[in-house]
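FAQ

Q: What does a record look like?
A: Structure on top, sequence underneath. For example:
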């Protein structure tokens, strides 16, 4: 090698790169040679960290450490044998091999020929320059730490996982556990700390905290609930300790749980003492008093009562020293108190007692619980009959308290309509005994012989007829039990339809509400029932007044209701009269209340005759009036179609019963009426008319009107399809819904027109002139108040508000007692009840 002028060899420009590459090769060699040793040591450390040393005796531990040392020595020798220290030349060669053309080796070469040839020297110089540029891009080697090819079973990864788990979850360092196991006397080392510890854990349901016995040793007697679990642990040789106890009813003994540790567990069952001795002297002594867990008690807090809609209301009170975990009510028929007449004369069929879970508060650790169950038993065969109720409460350990022999009448829904009440009675008789099937069949046939004279609800008649035919077929075939529940459900539905009705006319609803209230007053109904019927009468009266105002708008008139003396009949006066009726009924003065009810009915009937006619803002030829008239015509046409469909259905029933023609002496109406296809064609024509009516609505008509007409058109289409397919019953249902939709559309259109008329009045007139020109509705409220939506009148009396609040609270209680609801909903309902 040539030296410079200073006599030193020129510095290698790649020396640092070669040194770093050499270090990388050393790391690769160490890892490949000693990874088995590292994985073995890591796994051994993790095993000791997890406490394997505690499970081994000292000799076993010494043997294990010897085996581990030999294995580690063998792996170390294997690693030394396979490790090769890389030389500088090897590092330079590996670095050069990673470059194209091996530029480092080229820069050290000399040309063998052409040394005196200038051309050859020029080519060689160009080649060296190109290699020098390539060599300038050289980078130090990075160590290749991949061992997958050398460790196909991934043992190194398993050891790494064990180390990480030990670092996160191990209790003690591995070195400490090994040193403790290698100590000459591990038991003596353990005993050098506390010689014992103990604690008493009361049952979870008691809510009592854990008591550490080291804090109460030698003190006054300790009172704890029965079932408390006592644990004692001693440190040292178990043979040096002695335990005696007289509280569990058996002899508990210390048992070795680990080297140098002994433990005993037993439950507190009775009063007594526990003594722990070490050697000849006592180490600790405790005296325990066992608190017995008393059985719960349960009683009725209030008499069983019925809600306005027939639900049963049971208010109970339960007490327990630690809390109630379950409560239930069982209702059984009291046959000795049943009035065995009519359908109840037959022997009743055996039915299991009604069992229902009683609601419990969210916090079941309260010493006293008072809750209310609201459940609907109206459809049960025992509704309205004498029953006995048995209440049961249960605590956390299974003890029960019982209150039985509570005699009452199982509440049920009251039906004021005579026909509905008759159907309910036949339903009860059918469910009472199969022997009543023929008697019930005869009564139903008698009721339905002339349906037009007793049935005012088409759907109720159809449902009852379906039940009649099913019962007749089952009676002849002797299969009444198989269809009895189905027939009972149909009779219930028919009775509800008759009772509630499908009344679209406000006047009919008002008359029905008045009849129900009058009958309730005559029958000495409860205050809750009177209050419910009064609310129904108030709603029906309000709807009736709105219908009068709507009809006035339909005629293109405004109207003012006046009493016979000429003064307006205001809402306050009507409200005061209703409040007086309710007050008299609550005081037991039923006759006076009924007289005031008749007076109210006469006043309402006279109001329509007292309406003064005047010109409305919209004339008879206005678009709104034309649309209202078109809807009225469509409603009349649809009602006529429904009546003819009902007659067609009656003819089909009679033909189905006789198999041919009509009975002798009765005229055949089949020739006089239209067939199903003719009715379907008329229904389709009426449906097509709805498109024109909807397109011709005035601009004041809102979305509610258009939606009602769309629903009416859809129901008309389904009624047409039913008539074409011979499903007259289904077509009747759709026609009834179309009638309701048309009525709703007329109501909504009337309100929209009234609002548009009120908004179009001119402002700025004098107050006196405005009062003179203003028209009032039948309740004395101003009509045409230029868009004003408020009023200075109190529209919701305080008594009504309190009744609504009670109804809402009762509904929350009823739902909270339904354990079939989602737990999230039950939690929300119970938190609501806790607030009240």
């Amino acid at each position: 090698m040539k030296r410079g002028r200073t006599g030193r060899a020129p510095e290698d420009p790649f020396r640092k790169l070669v040194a770093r590459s050499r270090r990388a090769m050393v790391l690769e060699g160490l890892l490949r040679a000693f990874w088995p040793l590292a994985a073995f040591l890591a796994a051994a450390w993790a095993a000791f960290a997890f406490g394997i040393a505690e499970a081994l005796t000292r000799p076993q531990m010494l043997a294990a450490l010897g085996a581990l040392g030999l294995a580690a020595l063998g792996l170390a020798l294997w690693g030394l044998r396979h490790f090769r220290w890389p030389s500088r030349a090897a590092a330079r060669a590996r670095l050069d091999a990673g470059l194209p053309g091996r530029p480092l080796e080229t820069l050290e070469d000399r040309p063998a020929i052409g040394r005196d040839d200038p051309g050859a020297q020029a080519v060689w110089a160009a080649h060296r320059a190109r290699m020098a540029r390539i060599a300038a891009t050289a980078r130090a080697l990075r160590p290749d730490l991949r061992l997958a090819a050398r460790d196909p079973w991934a043992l190194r990864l398993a050891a790494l996982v064990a180390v990480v788990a030990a670092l996160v979850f191990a209790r003690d360092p591995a070195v400490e556990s090994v040193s403790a196991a290698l100590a000459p006397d591990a038991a003596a080392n353990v005993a050098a700390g506390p010689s014992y510890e103990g604690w008493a854990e009361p049952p979870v349901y008691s809510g009592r905290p854990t008591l550490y016995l080291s804090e109460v040793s030698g003190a006054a007697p300790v009172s704890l609930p029965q079932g408390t679990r006592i644990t004692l642990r001693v440190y040292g040789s178990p043979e040096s300790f002695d335990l005696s106890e007289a509280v569990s009813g058996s002899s508990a003994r210390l048992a070795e749980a680990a080297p140098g540790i002994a433990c005993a567990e037993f439950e507190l069952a009775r009063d007594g003492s526990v003594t722990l001795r070490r050697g000849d002297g006592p180490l600790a002594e405790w005296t325990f008093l066992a608190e017995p867990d008393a059985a719960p008690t349960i009683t009725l807090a209030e008499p069983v009562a019925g809600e306005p809609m027939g639900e049963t209301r049971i208010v109970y009170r339960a007490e327990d020293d630690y809390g109630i975990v379950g409560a239930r009510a069982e209702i059984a028929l009291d046959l000795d108190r049943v009035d065995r007449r009519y359908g109840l004369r037959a022997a009743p069929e055996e039915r299991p007692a009604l069992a229902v879970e009683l609601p419990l508060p969210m916090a079941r650790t309260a010493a006293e619980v008072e809750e209310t169950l609201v459940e609907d038993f109206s459809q049960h065969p025992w509704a309205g009959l004498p029953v006995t109720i048995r209440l049961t409460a249960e605590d956390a350990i299974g003890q029960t308290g019982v209150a039985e022999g509570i005699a009452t009448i199982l509440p049920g829904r009251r039906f004021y309509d005579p026909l509905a009440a008759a159907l309910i009675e036949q339903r009860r008789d059918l469910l009472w005994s199969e022997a009543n099937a023929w008697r019930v069949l005869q009564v139903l046939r008698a009721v339905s012989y002339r349906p037009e004279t007793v049935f005012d609800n088409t759907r109720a008649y159809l449902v009852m007829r379906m039940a009649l035919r099913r019962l007749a077929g089952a009676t002849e075939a002797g299969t009444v039990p198989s269809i009895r529940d189905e027939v009972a459900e149909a009779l219930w539905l028919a009775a509800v339809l008759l009772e509630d009705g499908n009344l679209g006319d406000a006047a009919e609803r008002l008359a029905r509400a008045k009849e129900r209230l009058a009958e309730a007053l005559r029958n000495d109904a409860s205050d809750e029932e009177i209050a419910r019927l009064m609310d129904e009468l108030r709603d029906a009266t309000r709807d009736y007044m709105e219908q009068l105002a709507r009809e006035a708008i339909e005629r293109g008139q405004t109207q003012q209701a006046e009493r016979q003396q000429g003064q307006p009949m205001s809402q306050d006066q009507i409200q005061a009269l209703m409040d007086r009726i309710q007050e008299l009924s609550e005081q037991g003065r039923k006759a006076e209340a009924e007289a005031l009810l008749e007076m109210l009915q006469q006043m309402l009937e006279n109001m329509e005759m007292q309406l003064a006619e005047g010109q409305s803002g919209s004339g008879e030829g206005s678009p709104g009036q034309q649309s209202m008239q078109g809807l009225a015509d469509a409603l009349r046409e649809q009602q006529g179609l429904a009546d003819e469909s009902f007659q067609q259905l009656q003819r089909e029933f009679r033909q189905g019963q006789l198999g041919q023609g009509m009975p002798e002496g009765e005229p055949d109406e089949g020739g006089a009426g239209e067939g199903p296809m003719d009715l379907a064609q008329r229904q389709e024509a009426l449906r097509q008319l709805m498109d024109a009516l909807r397109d011709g609505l005035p601009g004041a008509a809102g979305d509610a009107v258009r939606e009602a007409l769309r629903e009416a058109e859809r129901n008309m289409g389904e009624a047409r399809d039913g008539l074409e397919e011979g499903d007259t019953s289904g077509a009747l249902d759709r026609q009834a819904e179309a009638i309701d939709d048309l009525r709703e559309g007329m109501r909504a259109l009337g309100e929209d027109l009234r609002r548009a008329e009120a908004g179009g009045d001119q402002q700025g007139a004098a107050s006196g002139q405005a009062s003179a020109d203003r028209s009032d509705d039948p309740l004395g409220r101003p009509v045409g108040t230029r868009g004003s939506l408020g009023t200075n009148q109190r529209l919701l009396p305080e008594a009504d508000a309190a009744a609504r609040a009670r109804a809402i609270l009762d509904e929350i209680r009823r739902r909270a007692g339904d354990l079939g609801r989602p737990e999230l909903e039950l939690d929300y309902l119970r938190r609501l009840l806790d607030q009240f």
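Q: Is there anything notable about this one?
A: The chain has 24 helices and 21 strands.
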